[in-house]
Amino acid sequence: MKPKVTMIAWNQNDNYVVTAVNNHLLKVWNSSTGQLLHDLVGHADEVFVLETHPFDCRIMLSAGHDGNIFIWDITKGTKTKHYFNMIEGQGHGAVFDCKFSPDGQHFACTDSHGHLLIFGFGCSRPYEKIPDQMFFHTDYRPLIRDSNNYVLDEQTQQAPHLMPPPFLVDVDGNPHPTKYQRLVPGRENCADEHLIPQLGYVATSDGEVVEQVIGQQTVDQDEPGLEPSILDGMIRQLQLEQDQRTGADQESAPSAPQNGEGTPRRG
């Protein structure tokens, strides 16, 4: 096998360069002279993650498709910490990306099974207030393109950025309790009854009927502090009203509004 470099990273002060090679070795080089200083052995598959510590020039993190995460002291060529991403009943999970926090006290990794792994110092209590499985109910909804080549949600025919805030569900699509729904931006101040999704039944392309979250319960828009109800078809109705107003404006000359009132215009 011809060796190929898969990743390259400079350390924090640029004195060293670390390269990942497809023979599973990491090599530490002097960035000024090009001299090979160390071979770092430990990975058993290709490495596509190399991250330097934000302020400690000795520390480099590596992670790969073998599920291994290493923290190296590249000045000595030794491993400081090691973690193997074993998933019960499914073998190991390949690590796809890692990033340090700005203070260097934590780092987070994502793997091939959709897990977010958080490592660091201190207490894990802040993370206990969120569920283990968090997906938006719209994560895997199909998209289509309209006549202008703009992207629309296939089910509601709305532009994704105009759709209401999604609901948090588990891996099977079951909605989480209302206390978790408030973690979604846009739902922080909703009453409990407005955080319960409506479930509908949608036919798939093979004729199978599946249960799916289709919207939220109607909210009285006169109640202060609650977000307005945005249900399927509302965006199309607003567009229709706008088109009607535009057509009326073209048929008659515009007149100055009286008493501070005029035709509502789109913001």
UniProtKB/TrEMBL annotation:
Compositional bias of kind Polar residues: 249-261
Pfam entry (one): WD40
Cross-referenced SUPFAM superfamilies: WD40 repeat-like (SSF50978)
GO BP field: cytoskeleton organization; regulation of cell shape; regulation of transcription by RNA polymerase II
Region annotated Disordered, chain positions: 239-267
Keywords: Repeat, WD repeat
Residue stretches of each WD repeat: 1-39, 40-82
Alphabetical list of InterPro entries matching this protein: Bromo_WD_repeat, WD40/YVTN_repeat-like_dom_sf, WD40_repeat_CS, WD40_repeat_dom_sf, WD40_rpt
UniProt GO cellular component terms: nucleus
UniProt cross-references to PANTHER family, sorted A to Z: BROMODOMAIN AND WD REPEAT-CONTAINING PROTEIN 1 (PTHR16266:SF26), WD REPEAT DOMAIN 9 (PTHR16266)
Name this protein carries in UniProt: BRWD1 protein
Originating species: Prunella fulvescens (Brown accentor)
